[in-house]
Amino acid sequence: MKARITVTLKNGVLDPQGKAIEHALSGLGFDGVGQVRQGKVFDIELTGTDKAKAEADLKAMCDKLLANTVIENYAVEIA
Amino acid sequence: MKSAVVLLPGLNRDRDMIAALTKISGQAPATVWQTDTEIPAVDLIAIPGGFSFGDYLRCGAIAARMPVMRAVAEKAAKGVTVIGVCNGFQILVEAGLLPGALMRNASLKFVCRQVKLEIANANTMFTRRYRPGQIIRSPVAHHDGNYFADAETLARLEGEGQVVFRYAEGTNPNGSINDIAGIVNDKGNVLGLMPHPENLIEAAHGGNDGRALFESALGLAA
């Protein structure tokens, strides 16, 4: 089983890196770029076959390590 | 007074912290390694600065999940004094021993310079040797020192006097909310700060503004 976890900054949390990327994109001539927010993606291979257990485990992984829930949200997708 | 210094791969200010504690307390601190599950009986535990685990994932995130941090949390719950400097502050925040988060500097640049700090609360076990509102100097050296907390947490920190050090006189080097440079937990025995007071403790450093922090925390008489 393969899973993808996406971690993004919560609304209202300042993202200086996203801001710098936004400026760099407009510097490259890409007009019409609004706000850019940077995040992280984790691709995780799981050996089990129980999808419900995998989902619960992945959420626990996010809460315990992969995301800092003070400033970040996460989304779990199982392929 | 007995102290201990936590060692983790990638820290680089551990020797500075050990030197400062040795000079100020009169005896060398014990050292505890990341895999140690017990910390000897000490009055003060210090987590030094650096780049533990290469700052992978988030600064301090991996270090905060090492066995030694469970031991630090147990000691902190029993009232032992804990100081985390720079990466040590990031580790304490990631371990949930202090609220909020430390984010990339607003300038996106690594800052290495001297700043001014205001003693925002002189009535803590870490600042009792300073005067209220006193302005002291301190070096900073970090890339992720931009303190953030949600509005509710921030109101609680400010209301309860948990903001202990603030960047003074326009010297905020990282965009920290409310110019916050250092905070304590609600019990007042765990301090985290981004500046490096251990690097300004004697004449050879060009000043000793940071010394009173350790003298306060170690309960040393003036």
Automatic annotation (TrEMBL), chain A:
Listed pathway(s): Purine metabolism; IMP biosynthesis via de novo pathway; 5-amino-1-(5-phospho-D-ribosyl)imidazole from N(2)-formyl-N(1)-(5-phospho-D-ribosyl)glycinamide: step 1/2
Protein purpose: Part of the phosphoribosylformylglycinamidine synthase complex involved in the purines biosynthetic pathway. Catalyzes the ATP-dependent conversion of formylglycinamide ribonucleotide (FGAR) and glutamine to yield formylglycinamidine ribonucleotide (FGAM) and glutamate. The FGAM synthase complex is composed of three subunits. PurQ produces an ammonia molecule by converting glutamine to glutamate. PurL transfers the ammonia molecule to FGAR to form FGAM in an ATP-dependent manner.
The keyword Cytoplasm is assigned to this record: yes
Keywords of this entry: ATP-binding, Cytoplasm, Ligase, Nucleotide-binding, Purine biosynthesis
Example of a GO MF term: ATP binding
Annotated protein name in UniProt: Phosphoribosylformylglycinamidine synthase subunit PurS
Organism: Mesorhizobium atlanticum
Catalytic reaction list: N(2)-formyl-N(1)-(5-phospho-beta-D-ribosyl)glycinamide + L-glutamine + ATP + H2O = 2-formamido-N(1)-(5-O-phospho-beta-D-ribosyl)acetamidine + L-glutamate + ADP + phosphate + H(+)
Lineage of origin: Bacteria, Pseudomonadati, Pseudomonadota, Alphaproteobacteria, Hyphomicrobiales
Source organism superkingdom: Bacteria
Residue ranges the record marks as coiled coil: none
Top-level EC class as recorded in UniProt: ligase
From TrEMBL, chain B:
Its EC number(s): 6.3.5.3, 3.5.1.2
Pfam family for this entry, one: GATase_5
PROSITE patterns the UniProt entry points to: GATASE_TYPE_1
GO biological process, one term: 'de novo' IMP biosynthetic process
CDD domains given in the database record: GATase1_FGAR_AT (cd01740)
GO cellular component terms, semicolon-separated: cytoplasm
Cellular compartment(s): Cytoplasm
Main location: cytoplasm
GO molecular function, one term: ATP binding
Keyword Signal recorded: no
Keyword Cytoplasm applies: yes
Active-site residues annotated for this sequence: 86, 196, 198
Keywords associated with the record: ATP-binding, Cytoplasm, Glutamine amidotransferase, Hydrolase, Ligase, Nucleotide-binding, Purine biosynthesis
SMART domains: GATase_5
UniProt pathway annotation: Purine metabolism; IMP biosynthesis via de novo pathway; 5-amino-1-(5-phospho-D-ribosyl)imidazole from N(2)-formyl-N(1)-(5-phospho-D-ribosyl)glycinamide: step 1/2
InterPro entries: Class_I_gatase-like (IPR029062), PRibForGlyAmidine_synth_PurQ (IPR010075)
HAMAP family found in the cross-reference section: PurQ
PANTHER family the record matches: PHOSPHORIBOSYLFORMYLGLYCINAMIDINE SYNTHASE SUBUNIT PURQ
Protein function: Part of the phosphoribosylformylglycinamidine synthase complex involved in the purines biosynthetic pathway. Catalyzes the ATP-dependent conversion of formylglycinamide ribonucleotide (FGAR) and glutamine to yield formylglycinamidine ribonucleotide (FGAM) and glutamate. The FGAM synthase complex is composed of three subunits. PurQ produces an ammonia molecule by converting glutamine to glutamate. PurL transfers the ammonia molecule to FGAR to form FGAM in an ATP-dependent manner.
Protein name: Phosphoribosylformylglycinamidine synthase subunit PurQ
Organism, scientific name: Mesorhizobium atlanticum
Chain's gene name: purQ
